[in-house]
Every structure is written in C-alpha cells, then in structure tokens.
Amino acid sequence: MPDTLPADSVGLVSPETLHFDQPIALACGQTLDSYDLVVETYGTLNSDASNAVLICHALSGHHHAAGYHAMDERKPGWWDSCIGPGKPIDTNRFFVVSVNNLGGCHGSTGPASTNPATGKPYGPDFPVITVTDWVESQARLADRLGIEQWAAVVGGSLGGMQALQWSLSYPDRVRHAVVIASTPKLSAQNIAFNEVARQAITSDREFHEGRYYDFNAIPRRGLMLARMVGHITYLSDASMGEKFGRELRDEAYQFGFGAEFQVESYLRYQGERFSESFDANTYLLMTRALDYFDPAWETNGDLAKALAPAKCEYLVLSFSTDWRFSPERSEEMVNAMISARKKVSYAEIDAPWGHDAFLIPTPRYTDVFTAYLDRVAREVGA
Known about the structure:
10 helices, Rna Polymerase Sigma Factor, Chain: A, alpha/beta, single chain, 12 strands, eight-stranded mixed sheet, 2 domains, Rossmann fold, globular
C-alpha cells in the first residue's frame, strides 16, 4: 500500500452500524423485531437530498464498496473501480450509500447474530430472506438518512435484482434503476448450481444442521466447494483458458489427485480464502434469495405486466461472455420494459471475463456507465 491514496479514491472510510427498532415483517411470514444494518457512505448529500445513489451488493458482497478502511489495507472496496471522484458513480456529484443486507455476515443482523429469544446465534433459525425484504429494509434506511427518492439504485448480479425490485416496490422513490449483469429470474440451471453449493455446505460434517457456532466449528470444506462451484460459473471458458490454460504447477504429471494444474490450485485458494471470511448460513440464505426472485410470479409469468407500476428509467447492461446471467436474459427484461412502455437504455458489452466482467472497468463499459450516470447527475442538479 502506498503512503498516499489514489487521487480518484474516496479515501479512508468507516462503516456505520444503524439500529432499527421497528419490526419488519418478512415475506416468509416471520418478523424481525429489531435489526442492524451496516452502511458506508461516500460523497456529500446535497441540500434537497436529491443526489443519493444506493449500491446493492451481489451474493458475496457487503457494504465496503469503495475506498480503504486503513492505509495498510491491501485492496480497496469491491467496486472501487466504479465509485469515486471522476469514476462512473462520481462522488464529487453523488452521495453514495452502500449497505450490507439483512442476513449478511459483515455486521448486519444475520444468522451469526444473537437471537434475543435464546441468547445464542440465530443459526438456522434466522428467517429466509427475499429480495423484496431487502428492498423494504433499504427503504427504511433511506428514511433514516432523510432520502425521499434515490437518484439511482444500482446493482450487479443479485444487486441488479434489488435495483429492479426497487422500481416495483417503491416506484415513486427511485428515478433510475441500473441493472447490470442480472436477470428477471433464475434459469433451472442457475437454481441447480445454487443447490449443488448448498448441498456442499449442508453435507459438511462440521455443519451441525446450521448450529456450528455452538460447536465452535466452521463447515470449511463445504464453503470451499460451494465457492469453487460458484467461481467457475462467474468466469468464462476463454478467461480461464487465457489465465491458466493447462499449465501445470510442476514440470510433469504427479499421477495423483493433488492440485497439479494451476487452475486447480487457484480454485482451492479461492475456496479456502472464502471459507475464512463468509458465513455458511448466510451463503444458504443468499442463494435462496436468488432462487426465489421472480417479479412475474404474481402476474402468471407476464413480466411486462409485473413492470407496470414502475415509473423510473432503466439502464440495463449485459456482457457477451456471461453465461451465468446471459445477455439473452437481459434482453428478455429489456423487451418486457419496452412492452410495458418504460424508458430503457440497453448495451451488451463485449468482454471476455464472463459474469465477473461487471466488476472490471473495460473502456466501453465505463463509457456507457459514465454517460448514463452523468445524465442522472444533470437531472438532479449534481
């Protein structure tokens, strides 16, 4: 880490924990009597609170989207490439709010939090959370911050689902929804990948039916396997081939079952690192929220009809090699928006990195993203 931070960084940031005493009724039928949300904010809220942008995170994301927590922090927040002075989400113009969702494992109330009814961690007793529940909790966060309407709600992957749901749950409270590398519902194949990941976790002998906290245990192997499966789906065949090919760690085959290929070593490293930082019960919750998301469920599969309440404008972005949430799924969403007579801009970005491309600042992606947010800023006088 250098002695000084990059000029286009939001700099040193500190998360804040906000407590909510008002009970929140969840889609599953259960209620949380109170809860905490951890947030980070970047930039300055203007006098009429019109320049606020909400960042919604993906499955393994959290509130730390930009900047650094300390001068010796090795990497900045997970979307630092897009948030900061002069970047697509320009903090010289916008007040940016990034939140760790309910059910998360980075400070917001989740399975590892203490259940006030038992004095022990919730574990598997934590209620199943949906995208709609997250939007409700984020609306209460907006109330707390004095934000009546978001200039934009922005998210990639699972975050894009939240941006889309915002436009339906609170149509008067969002001017623009930016939906990146996302989908209006998971395919059967995507649900299958999520189920394999969950089975990897729940079949780990250290899972203890979700009560591993009581045993001072972590289902590391299950989390590692779940992350390895997920990570494969986030990358394209071309990007994996370019990065690893069939390169061996040693000069010859070892005729065993250790990590002989570089790609095997990489996946094991990613899985091991993830198992040390992410909660298994949270992973189960997040993947199930992905599975359940389907705004057209209540309109008999008619997405255009489901979009009827929306009043915002949309930017939808997809990536050519994203086979997890393919451009065809984004186009399905865009066509429904057009049928519903909504204002929508769409671009498919040619990028070789698969689903992870939404985290990588390629020139055309950055140009399109910047141009759209520049228009949003001008609309709100930022």
